[in-house]
Amino acid sequence: MGRVIAATTSASDKRKAFRAGLASGKLQRLPGAFSPLVAMAVQRLGFEGVYVSGAVLAADLGLPDIGLTTLTEVAARGQQIARVTDLPTLIDADTGFGEPMNAARTVTVLEDAGVAAAHFEDQVNPKRCGHLDGKAVVPVGDMTQRIHAAVAARRDPDFVICARTDARAVEGLDAAIDRAKAYADAGADLIFTEALADESEFEKFRAGVQVPLLANMTEFGKSDLLSAQQLENLGFNVVIYPVTTLRIAMFAVEAGLREIAATGTQAAHLDRMQHRAALYDLLEYENYNEFDTGIFNFTVTESA
Global pTM? Predict the structure, then answer.
């Protein structure tokens, strides 16, 4: 019998798998999931992990990505998504939701939520989307304190602490590389550099930093959209597609709503919908039936 209610892989094993993936030499592909159901599709289609974007969570709540979401909201969504997939989940922890002590608590809460990794960024509060202008970054020492606090609070040594730097757009590429080295020295297991422009910048960053690196392939931003093969050839270890599934879904939602508004029916859109049978297959309805039958298979007979 397959998965019922929740994934069968433990949080510890998912974290070990993510660490092994970072050391494998194979690019770990992590599409963003805006819901547990999307995370199940990510696993079904053979990806190596799942990403939970802070920008997507904020948008799903009807908010801009400017640091308005709370640790409780982020951890709850992370727990919901990690629960249903056997893949490791990387989650966006923004700036750690406050001071270094807050970053430390964030790690413990996210560990309890069952995710495999979290990234912390060096922006000033309130943060902005990483591909917008007008960002500001904290001094290097402030960010290394965040990382030190996060690492010190970690109870599972396999939980991956990722440090994100937004310095490329603020201080330049060389400064971003220097920051990445400092964050690695502070204990970060993985470095996420935001808003690199093109392949040459990804190549220079890889040459300058010795720890595992994450590439952000978000649409409509400042970075060229490099293929997974290009990124693997450049020596990157992880790629995220943070908002892709939400953008695809919302484009389809708006098109469907326009169709109903214009014609009074959704009939013309049936060939652009997930069929009920496909949804039931993804949810593994048959496993629930088998589980239910196996539990409630007793009979009661009258005694003589």
Answer: 0.93
